[in-house]
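step=encode ok
step=design start
structure_in=
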């Protein structure tokens, strides 16, 4: 059998976290010289507490030991692995995983190990992870799942905004000049991801214009593929996420939406407040807009 590894730059909900075929690999957040495993030893609220005091947390890539523990445990259980990793253009995580995978391939040639660059993260990685977990539930092969994930990565759009650009600039994700322009005169950034990097798409005056542009960009990207699962991720701003869902639902009545919260490690770089929409321009051959494991979670929540 095959399992899926995601790191903590992939937004998850309870159903995804509890999926039996998911392996979670945290990046690390460093506060006052102490390292915490994202999503295990620290969460977004704790990171925001530190940031509101004016302190600047640091982040670091995955631990080799943590990845090796996952590989060893699954090797002993005769499980193969697909790792959907954070963008290689934004982190050294992919490069570290590549080296470890090469070492294991030499030692254990019968173990299937596939490393996929998400070319992003956040809700974009979630789109791929959701379909991969659904395909695992249905018994698709390692190769079929790999192909589907790679196709999703190639056809995912990122359209998002954040409260201000200070934290992206401090984390080295954008340059200082871009940050200064965006933080003046009530100008809000519309961001996207190209070639695995966060780039400025447009500067707009006021939040409302940004939200309308995010909605328009999403509609333009998906074209005729309106019957799909769309991810909306937020950085401590569920109200705006719900607002965007309402806007998009009116234009896309056939679509299904899932709202996720960004992880703590991405919250360090994105800052306090922000929202994004992630959608597909093309579907892989095996695509399901209503995966059963997500529907089961919704049903259980309604019963409760």
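sequence_out=
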């Amino acid at each position: 059998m095959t399992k899926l590894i995601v790191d903590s730059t992939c937004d998850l909900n309870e159903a995804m976290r509890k999926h039996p075929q998911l392996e979670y690999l945290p990046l690390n957040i460093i506060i006052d010289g102490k390292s915490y495993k994202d999503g295990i030893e620290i969460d977004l609220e704790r990171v925001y507490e530190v940031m509101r005091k004016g302190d600047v947390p640091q982040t670091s890539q995955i631990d080799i030991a943590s990845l090796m523990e996952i590989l060893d445990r699954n090797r002993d259980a005769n499980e193969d692995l697909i790792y959907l990793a954070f963008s290689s253009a934004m982190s050294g995580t992919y490069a570290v995983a590549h080296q470890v995978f090469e070492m294991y391939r030499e030692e254990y040639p019968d173990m299937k190990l596939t490393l996929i660059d998400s070319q992003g993260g956040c809700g974009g990685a979630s789109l791929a992870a959701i379909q991969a977990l659904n395909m695992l539930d249905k018994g698709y092969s390692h190769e079929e799942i790999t192909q589907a994930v790679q196709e999703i990565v190639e056809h995912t759009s990122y359209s998002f905004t954040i409260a201000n650009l200070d934290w992206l600039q401090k984390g080295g994700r954008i340059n200082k000049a871009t940050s200064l322009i965006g933080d003046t005169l009530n100008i809000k950034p519309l961001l996207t991801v190209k070639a695995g990097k966060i780039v400025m798409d447009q500067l707009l005056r006021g939040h409302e214009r940004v939200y309308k542009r995010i909605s328009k960009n999403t509609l333009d990207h998906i074209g005729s593929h309106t019957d799909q699962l769309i991810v909306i991720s937020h950085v401590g701003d569920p109200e705006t996420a719900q607002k965007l869902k309402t806007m998009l639902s009116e234009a896309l009545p056939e679509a299904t939406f899932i709202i996720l919260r960004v992880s703590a490690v991405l919250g360090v770089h994105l800052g306090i407040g922000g929202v994004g929409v992630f959608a597909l321009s093309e579907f892989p051959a095996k695509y399901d807009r209503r995966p059963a494991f997500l529907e089961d979670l919704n049903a259980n929540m309604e019963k409760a």
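step=design ok
step=annotate ok -> Residues 2-154 form a domain with the Rossmann fold fold (CATH 3.40.50.10170).
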